[in-house]
Amino acid sequence: MRYFFTLLGSFTLLALVSGCEDKNAESPLFTTRWMVVQIEDFPVSASSYSDTHRSYIEFTGGPERTTGLGPCNSYSGSFTLGKEPGVLTISPQASTKASCGALNIETRYLEALPKTARYEISGKELRLYDASNSLRPLLIFEDRGLK
Q1: Host domain of residue 122
Q2: Between vectors from CA 57 to CA 39 and to CA 44, what angle results, nearest 5°?
């Protein structure tokens, strides 16, 4: 009988954990390819690739991974969501090492990602903020329906 309750408790815990993962997987943070439109105060209107290959970031859960394309290179890393809504930390990203005319912009972009402390999504816009500035985002992304 004790084995039955232990087994039942394990299944209940597994169901609760699975339910949390499914809820996060449906969040716009996870279901969107976020196209970069602003890096700090600098608007980004094009990629060094083409309009169909604009710079973006994607978040995937279980494990929490980031993947994306900068103006010059592809990159990946990890992220962690905090217990409070909107809390987000992003690891430094590993990237390929191709050179291009937009490398300075890409460097600013990749250096801004690990400064992220929180995020907010409003409509089709994702804003990433650092810990010291709650009014001006480090990075702004848009959902342009390309995923």
Answers
A1: 28-143
A2: 30
Q: Residue 27 corresponds to which amino acid? A: S
Question: What is the pLDDT averaged over residues 120-127?
Answer: 95
CA distance 95 to 73: 6
Burial of 19 (0-12, 13-18, 19+ CB in 10 A): exposed
How many Å apart are CA 103 and CA 139, to the nearest integer? 17
Q: What is the 3-state secondary structure (H, E, C) of 13-33?
A: HHHHHHHHHHHHHCCHHHHCC
CATH number, position 50: 2.40.128.270
56-86 pLDDT tens trace: 999 998 889 999 999 889 999 999 999 999 9
Residue 12: exposed, middle, or buried by beta-carbon count in 10 A (0-12, 13-18, 19+)? exposed
Specify if 4 maps to a domain.
no
In angstroms, the CA 54 to CA 17 distance is 35
H-run or E-run covering 141: strand 139-143
Tokens read off for 84: 């409070």
| Site of tokens 């039955």 | 4
